[in-house]
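Field notebook, page 342. I keep forgetting to write these up properly, so this time I am using the form the group agreed on. The chain and the ligand, beta-D-galactopyranose, are recorded exactly as supplied. Prediction of the bound pose follows.
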Amino acid sequence: MKKRRGYVYLAIALTLLAIVAAFIFRGSEEQQEIGTVKFGIATYREDDTFISNMMGSLTEIASSYEEEFGVRLNLGIVHAQNSQSTQNDQIARFISLGYDVLCVNLVDRTNALYIIDRAMEANIPVVFFNREPVQEDLGKWDRLYYVGTDASENGRLEGQIIADAYHRDPGSIDKNGDGIIQYIMIEGEVRHQDAVLRTEGSVQAIRDAGIAVEKLDGGIASWERHTAAALAEQYFEKYGDQIEVVICNNDDMALGVIDMVERLELDFSNIVGIDGTPAGREAIRDGKMLGTVVIDYEAQAQLIFDIAYALATGVDPHEVADVREDQSARAPMYVITAQDYN
Ligand code: GAL
């Protein structure tokens, strides 16, 4: 009798063991199915403040995702030092190494075809970010996406900062009292959609607020602080007190103008920027700059991650992000001015 009971226990134990083993085996099979998801990330250059902040966020998002969901992610990050042909080679290498998805910050946004063709041949989806391919290129395949910001709206809000300051206290902006705002425009890049649309949008917003404007001068400073400082110095030497406002396509260039103001000991703070970098916000808090439009780079990094991960794992990106009909998703933005620190 005792012996029979022993057999029953043994049978139960073996059945339980088999169930547990089946679960473990299934688990490892699933893990094998998803495996490590490999993101090939390529930026146009390494020393761009906004882009490196965004890359920092992307890395953090990926590691918390790994911890939370127990998946393995491999982020390969390369920088093209402003050369499209270098970037093309970097992408070809990612493809040959079997990366699952590519996240590309193009050097030349009008020159995306090489990357698109290689990605299509290898059936590897691409999330372009920050430097927007032309619509004709993006529309070539339904596994190409773009994540960026609405640059016209960035510009409109930037112009609004100036218009609001003018309406609050006209004399603080229109220093010579002629009813016209004389301004200098410092732009990012010639063919960059953010530069072009921000420039147009900011000036248009001031006009729309019923204020006349006159452009004294302007130039390209490649989004860079030191280049903007040098350019602004030339303008201040040439136009001096005639300059009432300096409008910059991003915060780094606004900070360059501030560097010049401080070096030459000028009394000038009618400077606006876009991005909302930590240094930009600090300058606003310290009264060195009127305001900025904060582009939420963490939200932008989250969009890149969500869309890329969805594409790599066979999920429709529309299920995980607010993707527009043109296969783009846009990060949110908001304004910060000196008033916010009062
Ligand atoms: C803009 C950003 C700039 C610079 C540029 C690079 O959106 O405002 O600071 O990062 O992208 O493409």
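OBSERVATIONS:
- Confidence is low (pLDDT under 50) at residues 19-32.
- The two ends are 87 Å apart (CA to CA).
FOLLOW-UP: compare against the apo run.
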